[in-house]
Design brief:
The protein is α/β, with parallel strands linked by helices. The chain has a domain at 6-123 and 137-171 and 224-233: Vaccinia Virus protein VP39 (Rossmann fold, 3-Layer(aba) Sandwich), CATH 3.40.50. The chain contains nine helices and seven strands. It has helices spanning 26-30, 46-57, 100-110, 124-133, 136-139, 150-159, 174-183, 192-207, 210-223, and strands at 16-20, 38-43, 67-72, 85-91, 111-122, 162-170, 226-233. Helix 7 packs antiparallel against helix 8 (192-207).
């Protein structure tokens, strides 16, 4: 389930690409069709990194066409040299960080001038409903600590020397699912409607039927749960 559009990143052979907060590696999987790039995933959770490695090793018996490194680390203290990456993906991460601005500065430090950046965060109005329906949704360990206004986030990143390119929305079909989970947070495992909706999402992910692709594409501008912002780091004067 990709949030960032790989085609919008303009990744080329020889590029070094960082997935910051890679989780179980969904965007790293999405980059596996591009040959001769160097992929790096970093996440705080070691178990997620283990799942990422297992999943990527399972592709074609481990015969991937990329160089892959996985690192356990903190977004606020990235263990990489200045100007180390051509592309950085930071998807559904900043909303978990107490000091997201420090993470933006770290991204600026490690991204080469002219490099591409894709950042996604939960969209403001669907996220507000989730917070209203369930306090545990955002107060549980590892939960969301803030609701972003996309326009303000865009301006904050631009101030740090990035040029905004464009944005889109993603995962409209997931928005009602999360509202249901929040509404029945304390007994969500017992609510049949949630289980059925989850089965629908899994089926859609695995089968990719044209009907739901069209429905989600049309619904994303209104109902998309995530907003995705694309930038390029400006060249020095």
């Amino acid at each position: 389930m990709l949030t960032v559009h790989m085609d919008d990143l303009d990744v080329s052979a020889g590029d070094r690409v960082l997935d910051l907060g890679c989780g179980e590696g969904r965007h790293l999987h999405g980059l596996c069709s591009i040959e001769n790039i160097r992929l790096v995933g970093i996440d705080l959770c070691f178990n997620d990194l283990e799942k990422t490695r297992a999943g990527l090793v399972g592709i074609a018996g481990g015969q991937t066409k990329q160089e892959l490194s996985l690192v356990q680390g903190d977004a606020l203290r990235l263990p990489f040299a200045n100007n180390a990456f051509d592309v950085v993906i930071c998807s559904e991460v900043l909303e978990h960080l107490d000091d997201y601005e420090e993470a933006v500065l770290e991204i600026k430090r490690i991204l080469k001038p002219g490099g591409a950046l894709a950042i996604s965060v939960p969209r403001m109005w669907p996220e507000k409903i989730c917070w209203a329906l369930s306090e545990a949704y955002h107060t549980a360990p590892g939960g969301h600590v803030r609701i972003f206004n996309a326009r303000r986030l865009r301006r904050r990143i631009e101030v740090e020397g990035f040029t905004f390119l464009h944005q889109h929305w993603a995962h409209a079909l997931h928005t009602p699912f999360w509202w249901l989970k929040c509404l029945f947070w304390n007994r969500q495992d017992d609510v049949r409607l949630i289980a059925l909706y989850h089965r629908l999402l899994v089926w859609d992910l695995m089968s990719k039927p044209m009907t739901t692709r069209i429905i989600e594409r049309m619904a994303n501008p209104v109902l998309g749960k995530s907003v995705v912002l694309y930038f390029r780091k400006r060249l020095p004067n």
